Amino acid sequence: MASTADIRNGLCIEYNNDIYQIVEFQHVKPGKGAAFVRTKLKSVTNGRVIDNTFPSGHKITDVRIERRKFQFLYKDDMGHHFMNTETYEQMPMPESAIDNPQFLKEGMEVDILYHAEKEIPLVMEMPPNVVMEVTYTEPGLKGDTATNAMKPATVESGAEIKVPLFINQGDLVRIDTATGDYLERAK
C-alpha cells in the first residue's frame, strides 16, 4: 500500500478494478483548501487514458508489473501463440490483448506485460516499428512524384498500408506499429 507521496511517472496502480500506469502527475497546493495530486492514468489492459485527482495522503494500491520476452509462433482459432524465450513455454493470447496484431510475423520478438503477484499476462506490446516485405502493390508511374501521393500496398503479414509511389513489390519497408504508417524504405 502506498500513498500519493509515492506517485511517480511509470508507477502502476490498481484503480477501479483495472491496472493503470501513471503517465504524468502534478502536486497542487492551492492557496485555499487541501492539497491534491492531479494525474493522467493509462490503462495497461485496454490503453484508455483518463484524468483523475487524488486528495493528498490518499492511499493507493501499487502493482508490480514485469516485462517478459516472448516470440510469436502462429495464429489459429484459439488466438495468437507465443513462446517464452527463457522457459520455452507456449501460451495463447486473445487478439483483444494485442496492440495491432496485423503487424505480427512469425519469429518476431515481443514484450508481454505480466501482473507479478498473480502471474497472469495482461497485454502484449509490439516493438515501435517493424520491417516487412511488400508482397503486392500496383507499379508506380515514372515522374509522378511531385506530390506526396500514396498508394495501397499489402505486406507479408497480410496488413494493408499506404506507401509512396516509388515503392515496388519485393521492397522492404519500415512500418510504425502504433499508427500503421509507412516510415521509410529498409535495407
Care to describe what's here?
- By secondary structure, the chain is mainly β.
- The protein has 3 domains: 2-62, Roll (SH3 type barrels); 65-125, Nucleic acid-binding proteins (OB fold (Dihydrolipoamide Acetyltransferase, E2P)); 129-186, OB fold (Dihydrolipoamide Acetyltransferase, E2P), CATH 2.40.50.
- Helix content is 0%, strand content 54%.
- The protein contains no helices and 16 strands.
- The chain has strands at 2-3, 12-15, 18-28, 36-43, 49-55, 59-62, 65-76, 79-84, 90-93, 109-115, 120-125, 129-137, 150-155, 160-164, 172-176, 182-186.
- It has a 6-stranded antiparallel sheet, with no helix packed on it.
- It is flat.
- The protein starts with a strand and ends with a strand.
- The mean pLDDT is 89.
Continuous helix count: 0
Q: Oligomeric form of this entry?
A: single chain
Q: From the 3D structure, determine the CATH topology of the largest domain.
A: SH3 type barrels
Distance N to C terminus: 50 Å
Count of distinct strands:
16
The fraction of residues assigned to DSSP E strands is over 45%
Number of domains: 3
Largest sheet: 6 strands, antiparallel
**Cα gyration radius (Å):** 22 Å
Name the overall outline: flat
